[in-house]
Known about the structure:
Largest sheet: 5 strands, mixed
Helix content: 10-25%
Structural class: alpha+beta
Shape: globular
Strand order of the largest sheet: 1-30-29-28-27
Number of strands: 30
Number of helices: 14
Strand content: 25-35%
Amino acid sequence: xxxxxxxxxxxxxxxxxxxxxxxxxxxxxxxxxxxxxxxxxxxxxxxxxxxxxxxxxxxxxxxxxxxxxxxxxxxxxxxxxxxxxxxxxxxxxxxxxxxxxxxxxxxxxxxxxxxxxxxxxxxxxxxxxxxxxxxxxxxxxxxxxxxxxxxxxxxxxxxxxxxxxxxxxxxxxxxxxxxxxxxxxxxxxxxxxxxxxxxxxxxxxxxxxxxxxxxxxxxxxxxxxxxxxxxxxxxxxxxxxxxxxxxxxxxxxxxxxxxxxxxxxxxxxxxxxxxxxxxxxxxxxxxxxxxxxxxxxxxxxxxxxxxxxxxxxxxxxxxxxxxxxxxxxxxxxxxxxxxxxxxxxxxxxxxxxxxxxxxxxxxxxxxxxxxxxxxxxxxxxxxxxxxxxxxxxxxxxxxxxxxxxxxxxxxxxxxxxxxxxxxxxxxxxxxxxxxxxxxxxxxxxxxxxxxxxxxxxxxxxxxxxxxxxxxxxxxxxxxxxxxxxxxxxxxxxxxxxxxxxxxxxxxxxxxxxxxxxxxxxxxxxxxxxxxxxxxxxxxxxxxxxxxxxxxxxxxxxxxxxxxxxxxxxxxxxxxxxxxxxxxxxxxxxxxxxxxxxxxxxxxxxxxxxxxxxxxxxx
Length: 618
């Protein structure tokens, strides 16, 4: 018994219901014959046509996405970053989702105009306006992508060659998704570090002692653990043991196993011993040459060397640097040169008169022979050697920032005086190593300027007993805020890769600088021009607000950063309207949530119509 839905009327609806058809079934099978038992079409050709239609539609969309990805991959190779990297996938997904590429065209044309007129590009980033200055940052694998953490808590991945934010997470939006098991109070991230060799996993440590492992392919939180009761002062990846090592201001050192997701060892100095009750300030590992070595700096001006070869850590040596506060430590690639940057010391922990700090270079091979700290010291680069502390400019800078710097965050054992002097840049705050003409150069953020120190070729030298440490001077120095920032702005974070140096300021802003080639010649024998500056600005990120709601006109006039960019806002609004009209006109569905290779495996066999429909409409 067959009934056709197109010819049913209200008069015979009751008779159809008695035969076994419902109004829903008649509406679902409009214009086709249906079976009484399972409501399926008795014409096999209808199902085959539907499956062929879904398959053709899916193949068409897959081909479009593949062509777009191939075009973007070729473009990314020219621009200078990897399109297939895990941390770049959110950017590639955004390119697939957008129907029009007018923003990229306008941005690229505007960047070319800036390069021709200014010599560098300037990009407005809303994350700097909402999150504040960058507290810490690190370079990812493709040399064009940075992981940045703002003072207010968010972490964002930025591609400086594209001039776009790839992804943003750890935001404290009350209406957004929760992270790490709930919405907590916004706190500053103190350390960032890639914890996997492909840089898919990123580790972060905040001021509340929480350590998070983020999957940048999402991005999403993979692991969260509170390893310290106070702020995380150091976070380093241990690739040899597939784990991480952390040091906190609660005096503890933690070895965490990422595979088992548990603490492997947790060590603290014994009560009433050297280092008991002293907060940690920095952390580093021994590298390939000393795989079991853990170097931890304390607020008392000492660097303690621990051995993690056994189940419990044992202290091997202690390096005393005087009344300073270690801020960063790392081993050179040769494995025996130890670099330690120090800022103004804290008398409450060191017990001696505070010193300005600077850069200290040690030979850790001498420590194995029982040498003292002074005998292992090779070179000392003092802070303030090229600038007077009591100058008028420095005093005005101190007075202008005193009220801002004394408002320290709660939960830290460091005093407000020490943090104020660190905020002023007195001493060395950070250090990175670069290679130039087979020589190692140490770039330090010292006294609010970038100073470079020549460390030599780094070749293996015989260990010599005794010998006084030499006092070196900087090869060059450069102020990244003199021409581009107001007087009250200071440099606050530093990182480097190849010839590029990234410096963040309290503006807030972030600049990408390039070191010129040392072998490049300028002029000729008859004309020798002045040498070029040691750093050349290539790209600069400034704060860009996206909304000015709630601010009166007087406030907007006083602070232009609170006013959003009208050009970018207008273009984005026009793009959203064009995409909505384009999708409504063509009736195109959105991109499948899963990667296309998962669906492409079923092309060799007949796919049910329901599965094809679900794949297309996902």
